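Appendix B, example 12.
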Amino acid sequence: MCEYHSVFSTKITDFLDFKESLNFARHSYSTSLRSLDKYAMTQNLTEPNLSKEVVQGLMTFHKKNITPNGQRAKLIVIRGFGQYLRLIGEDAYVIDPSELPKRQQYIPYMYSDSQLRLLFTAMDNLPVRANNSHIITPVLFRMMYCCAMRPGEPINLLREDVDLDKKVIHIKDTKRHANRLVSFNDDLFYLLRNFNLKMGNRKWFFCTSDNKKLKNYWGSNMLGTSWVKAGLGSRNSAPRQYDFRHNACSRVLQKWLDEGKDIMTMIPYLQAHMGHRKIQDTLYYLHLLPHELLKAENIDWSRFTNIYGEFKL
């Protein structure tokens, strides 16, 4: 069944097929193109013409509903869609890079231990729902946090991707079309094993009560609901799902520092666990540690610079 319903539906599907043939992850583009599809329907467009007026109208539509960084990410995909249409000989408007919103530096929300306890307690006590959200939420977010996963990774897991015998999660087709293995401890094993038995036979590890894959917005909705239930603030003040990944990584680094481990030696292990292609992406998380810890003797900044190049805090 086609997930697009506007006059652009066929061309969007063709574009996704084209990107997938080049080994790009389809889901990296589908959500952004859904916004174009929705906009075309709200405007009652009858011709699949990606004109300047359509693109600029979409940009205005985004400004009312999405953060600047979210706008930028979606419009980069729309720009790629325009380039594809030109490639196949159609007249299409391609957004100039100067028109894209400037990327804003996001400061991750760092949970305190007490806030995490309150949040997970709230998730454990969600009201019973027919869609199984009260069962899924506490397990999915514990997996995301304990395994430092990206928000989209848990909902894309097939049941077979979670190997309970080996205590390993096989994360496939993730950022930049990469795969990786993530191990988990006994505590998470017992939680996942019980959840797996309770959910029964199904395709997706996390799924709706009618065995359908969770929507991309599901996690944000349930995090907001849990945040309010925990008494931590309004739904609009809830942190991003991605902040669980930041918090997990930072706590690992802090634990290593507390144990006196050589961070220089340990960073590559964390890089593999996080699925980073570049070591600099992992070093970024040092920014999130308390400043006094960055002066610890087991962080030799000169060694980082000599091997990985200049690294600024």
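Strands lie at 162-163, 168-171, 180-183. The CA atoms of residues 111 and 151 lie 17 Å apart.
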